[in-house]
Amino acid sequence: xxxxxxxxxxxxxxxxxxxxxxxxxxxxxxxxxxxxxxxxxxxxxxxxxxxxxxxxxxxxxxxxxxxxxxxxxxxxxxxxxxxxxxxxxxxxxxxxxxxxxxxxxxxxxxxxxxxxxxxxxxxxxxxxxxxxxxxxxxxxxxxxxxxxxxxxxxxxxxxxxxxxxxxxxxxxxxxxxxxxxxxxxxxxxxxxxxxxxxxx
Length: 200
Ligand SMILES: [Zn+2]
Known about the structure:
Layout: H1 5-14, H2 22-35, H3 37-53, E1 55-56, E2 63-64, H4 70-73, E3 81-85, H5 88-97, E4 103-106, H6 124-133, E5 138-141, H7 147-159, E6 166-169, H8 185-193
Helix pairs in contact: 1-2, 2-3
Pfam families: RecR_C, RecR_HhH, Toprim_4
Domain Toprim: 80-175
Keywords: DNA damage, DNA recombination, DNA repair, Metal-binding, Zinc, Zinc-finger
């Protein structure tokens, strides 16, 4: 039943969000109209500005308001190392952990031939160019430990075969404070393969 073209349009628009179906979109729209008008206006303005103002950094491909993002532009970041991640949220997680101080390259996805995503779509040529031009000594392939993430990491490593670059992969394993009995077999196998001497 339609009682307002404006409400209908709002509900339809909200459905572009991931995981939001008809019912949830209706609930959100009614909430904003009933009790959240100022929040709704702020959301509309933020959406409008972000959709027209956010671009991809020319250097690392991450979202940025400017041609070069704040991380790439920061003179205090270490050079010579690059960390390759699949998404901006992966980059944020590493930044929040606080230990890594060098640069990034954000693929915005992973290789997925079945979906038509090849090396060109995720910027591998741009990454290789950067590795070459910036004289990168270590490339950390922090793609996800999924089939696609592993395949993407191996593809990049293969493309850099024969160059004098240390290529590393994040260790996968038991969460800190975790118990072996609750860890799945895949994780446990990775943890075994990535074991280190006790002194490290
Ligand atoms: Zn950047």
